[in-house]
Automatic annotation (TrEMBL):
This is Transcription terminating nucleic-acid-binding protein. SUPFAM superfamilies: L30e-like, YlxR-like. Gene3D superfamilies: 3.30.1330.30, YlxR-like. Residues 17-81 form the YlxR domain. Residues 222-232 have a biased composition (Polar residues). Pfam families: YlxR. Residues 221-251 are annotated as: Disordered.
Length: 251
């Protein structure tokens, strides 16, 4: 039987960028772009659409906060933006986290509109056992036994019993996940397309890496369950407004 794990390998090459803080190189899909608003505010540009020069970071929130406190971020941004006048918002780490969360949930919503998402235990179980499941996610308040049964069906469908493969528990409750997908009472989410799973995993990996403490591996393999559970107050927040401002500037 086909193993979907192999199908979610990197399907396209992404240009590399260098983190201005760590100086490490990586795919731009795994980094976060910072851009300047017309007023000179440094804001997250997670879709990398804003015009002009940008600066890329690949650190966690804790590392970004440390860099801000020590003045390292200010110096790195001054070099990246060639001495342009800029202001670093005191809440930049929260703006980045909110923007990454919004982007990740929007990505799941887009995949749902494209028909690549299945929800509900019965539908996911069927897709998993037939070998058509490429990624599996759970709301933070999902019951462990329900998540475990779907993971078992996934392992059966991929001839991978005993591997420990399981879905990824997202740091959002079912209420937020339901809003993102435009459905009611979404507890478990399955993706039935390899490219859709890759796109979703890219967005989720950036978000969970930033909030820490550890990045996650590919969603179709055994993920880390150690990501912190931040508070989520809604879909429209300061981080979203910051991204919107940059988007408007680019149009």
């Amino acid at each position: 039987m086909r193993n979907p794990t192999n199908d979610t390998a990197r399907l396209t090459d992404s240009p590399e960028r260098s983190c201005i803080l760590s100086r490490e190189h990586g795919s731009r899909d795994g980094l976060v772009r910072l851009a300047l608003s017309p007023d000179g505010d440094v804001l997250p540009d997670v879709r990398a659409k804003a015009p002009g020069r940008g600066a890329w970071i690949g650190v966690s929130r804790a590392e970004l906060e440390t860099a801000m406190a020590k003045g390292k971020l200010k110096g790195a941004l001054a070099r990246a933006f060639k001495g342009a006048a800029l202001t670093i918002p005191a809440d930049l780490p929260q703006l980045v986290e909110d923007a990454l969360r919004r982007h990740a949930l929007d990505r799941l919503g887009l995949e749902a509109k494209s028909g690549f998402v299945v929800i509900g235990g019965t539908a996911i179980d069927k897709a998993a056992r037939s070998g058509r499941l490429y990624a599996l996610y759970h709301a933070s308040d999902a019951a462990p036994d329900g998540a475990g049964k779907l993971a078992q069906a996934w392992r059966v469908g991929t001839d991978d019993e005993g591997s420990g493969r399981k879905g990824l528990a997202l740091p959002v409750p079912r209420t937020i996940l339901s809003l993102a997908l435009g459905r009611e009472n979404v507890v478990h989410v399955g993706l039935t397309d390899a490219r859709a799973a890759q796109r979703a995993n890219d967005a989720l990996s950036r978000w969970l890496h930033f909030i820490g403490p550890e990045p996650i591996p590919a969603a179709c393999e055994t993920p880390s369950q150690g990501a912190s559970t931040a508070q989520f107050s809604g879909m429209d927040d300061a981080g979203h407004m910051g991204v919107d401002q940059l988007k408007q500037d680019s149009e």
